[in-house]
Amino acid sequence: MKITTKNILEGVVTAVKAGAVNDEISIELKGGLKMSAIVTSASTETLGLRPGREVVAMVKGVNVLLARDMDGYVFSSRNMLPGTVKAVKKGQIMASVVVELDNGDRLTSVCTVDSADDAGIAEGVRVQAAIKAPHVILAARA
Fold this sequence. Notes:
five-stranded antiparallel beta sheet; mainly beta
């Protein structure tokens, strides 16, 4: 599979919560990290999503928000994945931030340089990668 995002996480479906139009898919990533995706009911059927099904979860870098110093806050994002910043590459306007999740997987977040600076994003900093469930794209082998 060749795609244009670096953010590819392998996992196994643990639950499917059916809705009228969309379904919530619960996924366990390696190391026990949990992730949720919201997909259409048609996609659930087409991909054969059911508990035990291996999937690949993909997220565009612009949909990965990085948060620090979250004590006392609750986020609406279903996916809060803990990790450590491994690399920051800054352009004139945008920054690319590589986060190694606690399970060893890596995610890349793309944000403005100003946002990264304001949040104190730097190598070695602990963060939570927040990803809204509807921004997760799932794929499964045929």
